[in-house]
Fold this protein.
Amino acid sequence: MKNSDEGSSVPELNTELKTEPNTELNTELKTEPRSESGTELKTEPNTEPNTEPETDLVTEQKTGTKTASKTVRNRSDDGLRTLTKLAARRDRIMLPVWIYALLATVGSTAYSLKKLYPTQLDRDKLASSISSNPSLRALYGPLYDTHSLGALTAWRVLGFGGLLIGIMAMSLITRHTRAEEESGRLELLGSGAVGRNAPLTAALYIATTACFGIGLLAALVMIVLGEDWSGALAFGACLFAVGVAIAGTQAVAVQLTETGRAANGIGALILGVAYLLRTVGDAAGTSGGAGWVAWLSPFGWIERVHPWAGNRWWVIGLTLAAGVVAAAVGYRLQGARDLGSGLLPQRPGRPAAGRGLRGVYGLSRRLQQPTLLGWAAGLLAFGIVMGTLAKGIEQLLNDNKQVEDIIARYGGVQGLTDSYLATAVSFLGMAAAFYAVQAVLRLRGEETSGRAEPVLSGSTGRLAWAGSHLLYPALGSALVMACAGLGVGIGAGAVLGDFWGWVGRMLRAGLITTPALWIIAAVGVALFGLLPRWTSAVYGVFGALVFIAYLGPAINASQWLLDLTPFTHIPKIPGGVFHWAPLVWMTAIAAVLAAAGLGGVRRRDVSSA
Amino acid sequence: MTTAIRASGLVKTFGRTRALDGLDLTVEEGEVLGFLGPNGAGKSTTIRVLLGLIRADAGTAELLGGDPWRDRVALHKRLAYVPGDVTLWRNLSGGEVIDLLGGLHGGVDAGRRAELLERFELDPTKKGGQYSKGNRQKVALIAALASDVELLVFDEPTSGLDPLMEDVFRQCVAEERARGRTILLSSHILSEVEALCDRVNIIRAGKTVETGTLAELRHLTRTTVEAELSGPPPGIEVLTGVHDLKTDGDKISCQVDTDHLDGLLKALTTVGVRTLVSRPPTLEELFLRHYEPEGAAR
C-alpha cells in the first residue's frame, strides 16, 4: 500500500522538477533522456538473447523490484533486462499454457486429419466440396493442396490457430505495457532506471519470442510426423509471422487508451475485423469478386503462404514487415504521450451524478453494462455467421462418415443440420461462460483495487454490494445466451427457410444453455467468498471444463470425463429431447455454490488494497 | 458528553503479523481525536475494524452506540470515511463519485458540495483516471465533508495534498468541529494534529502508548530551560526533576520535569536571572520518545 503511495506521487515530483531544476532529484531526471534513446533499445533484444533461462528467473525475481530501484547506473539495458525477466516471470504459467494449447491443436489436427482422410480419394473429395462451398471456405479458408498431410494440416490450423496466436500476442503486449501503466506499477519501475521505451520493448520481446517458440515447435511437430522440413519451416514461420503482425498492431493500440481493458477492446476489434476480412475474402473465392479483401488481413496472408506447396516466403516477409512497421508506429506514438495517458481524447464527464448512478446498483450498471452489451452484440453477430453456415455443413458431412460421427457426438442425435446448430449454440455458450467468469471476477477486482472499501464503508451491506455485481453473471448470462441463440436462429432461418420457426427454436436452445454458465460463474462466487485469494482459479476451472466440452467429443473421451462439464448435460436442442431435470439440478448446484460464496462474503474480512 | 468510539484491547493478526496488539481508543462525541503512529503501527487496521471491514480477533469495539461489525450498514449512514489511498473508477467523473459516495453516507448537501468544489479547486468533470493522487484525495474529502453525518473518519487524509490544500482541509475540519461533528483523524503530520486535535492517541506496534490532551501529555514530559544568571548558579543539580544540566560560566541549560519547573525557577531567582528561555516540549518530541526503540529513549 505504501509502495503505491510513493509510486503515484512520482509524476507530481516530475512536473515540479521541470520548473525547478535545482532540486536534489534532478540528477535522476537529467540522466533519463540517455536511457530513452529508442533506437538503441529496439536493437536490445537481439543483443541480449540470453535473458530467457527460466531457472535463474525465480531467484532473480525475488529481488526484482529491488534491482529495478537499485540500478541507478542508467544503462538502458539494465531496465530492459529487469523488465523482460519480470515479464517472463509473471507469464511463467500463462505462456506454457498457450504454447501447449497451440501445439496440441497442431498435433491433434494433423492426427485426426490423417485418420479422417486416409486416401488421396478422400482428400480430393474434401477439396472439391470445399472449393464448391463458400461457407466452408469462410470457415476454414481455401484448401490449396491435398498432396500432403502437411498441407492439409496447415490449411486447417492456420485460420483458427492464427487467431489464437494473435489473441496471445495481443494480451501479452497489453499485459506488460498498458495494463502495467494503468496499475501504476510501471510508474514505480519507471522511477528506477528504466528507459521510456523499455516496457514496450520488453513486451514485444516476450511476445515475439513466444510466437517464435510456438512456430519452431510446430515445425518440429510436423517434421516428427514425417513431413518435409522446408514446408514445416514455412508453416512454423506462418504462426510466428502472424503473431508478430498482431503484436505490432497491439503496440499501437496500447498507446491509444488509458486502460488495459480498453486497449484489449481495440485489439479485439482489430482481430475481429482482420478475421472478418479473411472470411469474406475466402468466401468470395479466388475467381474475381471480392476475393482480394483477404489480402488486407494478416490472417489472409498466412493462408497464402502455402506451406508444402510452394512455400511462398515473400508473403511471410510481408507479414513480418507489417508487424515491424506497426511496432515502429507504436514507438513513435509512445514518444508523443505522457506516462499514464492515452492518445485518444477523453471526453469530460458529467459534473454530477445523473439519476442512473444512485447507489450500488447504479454503480454496478456503469461498470458492468458496457461489457455485457459488447458480449451480447458480439455473440449475436457470431451466431448469425454460424447460423448461415448451416447450409454448407450438410454437404461436408455427406462426404465423410467419420466427420459425421464426430459431429453427432458433439451434438444431438438426429438430423445433421440440427446437430450442427445445437453444437454452434454450445460453442457460443462456452465463449459466453468466459463472460460470466469475468463478470464475477469484477467483484474481486473492485476489492483488491481498494475501490470496494469506500462503498462498503457506506450504508451498503456486503450482500447488496456483491448482489449488485452478480446480477450480471446471473441475468446477463441469460441475455448473452438469448442473443447467441437468436443470432444462430436468424442466420439459420435466413438460409434454411422457416425463419420464425428457427428463431424460436434457437432462442430456446440459447436460453437453456444458461445454467451451464451459472455453474461455472458460481464456482467463482464460492471461491470469492470462501477462498478470496484463489478467486482467479475459476479461470482454470473454466478452461478445464470448456476444454473437455470442446475437444472431448472429438477425441472420443470417455463418458465420465464428458459428464464433468455442465455443457454435456444441456439438452441438445434442436434435434434432441428436452428435459427440465438437468436444468433444474444444475441451477440448484449453482445456487448452492453462490449461496456458500455469499455467506463467506458476509463473514470474511475485506482485503485491503 | 457521550462516547462516539470506544475500543479496548483490540487484537488483529494477519498470518504471523500481529497488526493490533491490545489497542485502546476512545473518541468523545464532538471532539477531534488525533490518531498518531508511524507507518505500519496499525492505524489503518484499527480504522478498518471500526468500519466493520475486518473483524478483530479479540477486544471490544463500540461505534456510535452500536457494534461496528454487526450493525455496520446502519452505522455507516451516520459516518463518512476518507481512506489514505483513494482509488477511483476510471470511467466515472469526480462529480459522479462525490454524489455516489455521498449518497451512500446519508446524502450530499448540494450547497456545501458546490462550496467545497470551489475551495478545493477541483474540476468535477474529469474522469477518475485523469486525477493525480492529490485530486483523488480531494474527491473523497469532498464526498465526506459534504455528507450529512455525525462522525468523520480520516485516514492520513492530506498525504497527497499540497500545502495550500492542506490549509483548506484544516479550515474545513475546524468548521466541522464547530458544527459539533466528531472527527477521528489518523495522521503522522504533527503540525496538523497539533493545530486541529483536542486529544491525541499515540500508538506503536499495535498498542496505545500514550493518550490524552496535548496539555496532559506535555505535563508528563520535560521542559527545556536556558538561562543567563547574575551570579554563579546555585546547587540546582541536587533539585529533583532536573536533567541534562550544562553550565558554562553564568549560563545554564537543562531539562526539567514539567511538574518540577516551579522549584527550578525559585532556585534560579535566588541568584537573579538576566535572560530566560523556556520551551515546552513539542509534539514531535513527545512522538519521538515513542518512536525510538526501547532503551534508546533520552
